[in-house]
Amino acid sequence: MGKIVIEEMEFYAFHGHYQEEQIVGNRFLVDLELETNLKTPAESDRLEHAVNYQLAYQLIKKEMRRKKSNLLENIGKRILDALYDEMDGINKATVRIRKMYPPMGGPIKSVGVTMSR
Fold first, then answer.
1. What does pLDDT average to over the chain?
2. Residue 82 pLDDT
3. Which helix (H) or strand (E) holds 45?
4. CA separation (Å) from 110 to 30, 46, 81, 103?
């Protein structure tokens, strides 16, 4: 067993509760951790035996750009759904989504959610 980690995938998207956020957009950072069996790909050195993290990135990119969500929780659910629908070999997936400098009335670097399945 092991983990594949992709950190700080950056996207500009139009998610948020406030109408202004859905018009102007914001920067989002996404981290992904996939628990999977790494023994077979480590021994074979063949991509077809591994969980393809390039595909994981493409699925996340698609969900970040797909439709506007009011809540980070909704984006997290959609990402987890897409990963499990399109990929094999995942024992556990954890996604962390952060909205950078959210409009909350004061200086805040980010706000985020972490979800696992």
1. 95
2. 98
3. none
4. 12, 38, 24, 10
pTM for the full predicted model:
0.93
Q: How far is 77 from 75, CA to CA, in rounded Å?
A: 5
Tokens of residue 22, six digits = 């859905």
Active site residue 99: yes
Dihedral of the CA atoms 19, 78, 50, 116 (nearest 10)?
100
pLDDT of residue 94: 98
Task: Report residues of the chain scoring pLDDT below 50.
Answer: none
Cα separation, 51 vs 36, in Å, equals 8
CATH code at 85? 3.30.1130.10
Catalytic residue among 67, 92, 99, 109: 99
Domain limits at 93?
2-116
